[in-house]
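Retro notes, item 3 of 5
We never archived the inputs for the AHM complex last cycle. Fixing that now. Sequence and ligand:
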Amino acid sequence: MNNRIVTLDEFIIRRQKDFPFASGELTGLLRDIGVAAKIVNREVNKAGLVNILGKAASQDGNASGDQVQKLDLYANDKLIDCLKNSGECCGVASEENEDFIPIPGVGNKTSKYVVVFDPLDGSSNIDVNVSVGTIFGIYRRTSDSKGPCKLEDFLQKGADLVAAGYVLYGTSTLLVYTTGRGVNGFTLDPSIGEFCLSHKDIQIPKSGNYYSVNQGYYLKFDVEMRRYIDQCSDMNLRLRYIGSMVADVHRILFQGGIFVYPNTRKYPQGKLRLVYECNPLSFIVEQAGGKAMTVQLKRILDLEVKHLHQRATIAIGSPEMVDEMKAFVERYSATPTFD
Ligand code: AHM
Ligand code: MG
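Structure as it came back at the time:
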């Protein structure tokens, strides 16, 4: 048996050979994200020890209007720094910034990629030591490569993603990514400071026993969604809801199930951000054999992206369970109700 450790760097370089004409930029970008993830991981782990916890005093909210925690800002800064320094991308857009940030080329090098990310998803969990994660997506720019990147480079459909991934800062730290040829997972070995290949060619189970939804909003959901949730409960599915989408989707990717965040009265378009959360996670889940659609039954990756902080509803997970949700919506949204 070959027990040789394969590090993330080694794996990425090996995979570069799968892409004819690859210039090494994408490889470099993924490595930069890996480095940023290690720095963020270090801070997440010692967050209880330093004065970095708590809500940022300087800001009342992020670009999407939600509360921002200090560690989010730290993670945001580190990701931007790591991506800026290498010049492997020509711009970034973050959930924590109103606008995208163009990155000038280093020397005479102009990159053809832009990166989108949610630096620390699940920020309400930071203060209580519960899993949070970084989500990212990489697009090939569409604007003229001679000038700075433009908004249009970031407003591409999820189906146009070149790569996507997430880092989960949990009981162990795991980086999962895809470049559209399967999904692989790497666990951070703190003793050597390297992400090591631990989950090769991840396949989501076709069905599962878990459903993940904020059931506290039950009465605020449309009738078809309430009927679907009743069905999950009637079937004795197990409810798990961490409140970090990245952690909830991670469980489902490995154990099977469905994660749903429908429209509510407070969030008529859904709460989660299409660019930073829904698209990258949908690309990964589809690559692993799963499905992702809005609760209005449109494939997430086909949605038009009109602005950076657009929200969407989402049902994501095991293919048979997403299909079942779809069947419920089709059945009950067509039936007139009086409640
Ligand atoms: P965040 O990016 O500000 O942390 O917000 C996104 C999070 C998701 O990770 C999670 O699924 C959702 O918000 C939880 O929202 P709610 O508390 O409404 O259930
Ligand atoms: Mg988030």
